[in-house]
Structure formats: C-alpha cells, structure tokens
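# step 3/5: fold
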Amino acid sequence: MSPTRASAVDVGKIEHAKVEGGIRTHGLSKRSSPGKPLVTVVTVVFNCAGTLEGALRSVIGQTYPHVEHIIIDGGSTDGTLDVLRRYDQHIDYWLSEKDNGIYDAMNKGIALAHGEYIGMLNADDYFADPGVLAMIAGRLQAGDVDAVFSCLDIIDTSNPDLVLRKYRISRYSKFMLRIGVMPPHPTFYCRKSCYEQAGPYRINYRIAADFEMLVRLLLRHKITWAFLNHTTVKMRAGGVSSRGFRNRLVLNREILRACRENGLYTNFLILMLKIPVRMLELVV
C-alpha cells in the first residue's frame, strides 16, 4: 500500500471516529430531585454550524435552572464540532459519530437523557423566550399529565422577525391525526418513562417518524397531555418534509403508514382535509 493511499484511509477513519464532550465527560452529571424535575433538551444536528449556536444560546439563556442539554451530531464536517467545543462547558453531553439519520440520533439522545422529562430542540430552532422551560416544567410538575405541547412560529430563514406560519394545535383528536395534523413536535415535552414504554423512534421512516411517535404515544399508549397557549419555539422554514413534491409524497405515504400501524384509519382523500388547517396558519 502506498503512503498516499494509507494516509487517505487514516483520514477516513478519523472523520468517522466517535468524538464526545460536555461536562458529563468530566464527571459532572445532573439528576432530578424532589420538587426540581430535570428537563432534558435533546438537539440533533448535522452540518448546521450556522444555526447551532442560536439553539445553544437559547438553552443557556433559560431561567429554569434544572436543564440538561444533550447534543447528538451525525458526523458533521462543516465546523459544527468547533461550535460544540466552544460551548463545551455549557453542554451536559455531546456526541459526534456517523448515525442512521435524524431519528436514530433522537433515540440516542433519549437513551442518554437523565431528565425526568424530555423534549427535542432542532439545531435550526431556538426557544422563543428565556422563560419557556420554566413554564413547561411548572405545568409538568403539577403531576396530572404525562406531556405538554404548545405553540410554534415558523419564521423566515433570512429574517427571524418575519413569521410565516403560526402553528397552533390546541386540541388533540383522532380526526386531526387522521388528516395528518399533529401537535408541533419541537414543543412536545414528555416523561422519559413514556418513551421507555412506547419504544424508540422508528428509523425505517424517512420523514414522519415524529408523527408516528406521537400517534403511538397519544393513541396507543393513551398518555395524558396539556396544551400551553404560548409560543415556545421559533422554527426556521424549509424543513425536509416541505422540500418539493417528492418529499411531500413520501411524507403523506408515511403518515398513512403510521396511522395504519397504530390502528387508525385514513386515506389520501382524508389527508387533503389538512390543507384548510394549514391555510389558516399562514400569516398574511
């Protein structure tokens, strides 16, 4: 083997090697205590160096003191690791290694979480204000529900002050799931024990494993929930599910599959009923 080829192989191994950091790697680990439930925020990232810092800072700025932040990176090559290292002392644990996609990464984050409650904050998203987690923890601490969800603003990628859609699903019902409308996933905070009972996100879904998970939790496992009429998350427009006709077709097919696998009947015609709901969310 020539030296040049050997070097290329070594570089490839380095690029896909497992890298980790955060205060947990220095022996500092958080846990819940009586009256002070630990809330774990899981952030999944892949090549999002440009937006990850905003997500990180929105977690750091929360007034609720009992927060654990876990970040799962899929082996980024764009400077994401530089951001993680720069904020290492503010992150409980971060891991970078090749994975099987966003839902595999979410499963890793849940498995690593020490929090009594878990929510997902994507690398392109950020909390709407510093009091979000205090409000969520306060409602969950009341003890009569397993989960909460709230309101989400979808914003312009180049102008965060421009709200394009206001995503508000104040009531869960089988009908809403049948038309493919679910509570906004980034606002959903749930007991870890519910995830453990329901099982992991299904990584053989390309786009709609979050929809399937909520159907599974709400319909099959009948978790209890509460709605918070407050905007908790700002999401940048342009997610994978909205990128072109082909992805929307895949999304709808996976929604049909998710409903079928969880005993809820729907079809393509019924799914079309979500169009008026989405139109009402537009900010004009």
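# step 4/5: annotate
The chain has a mean pLDDT of 90.
# step 5/5: archive (pending)
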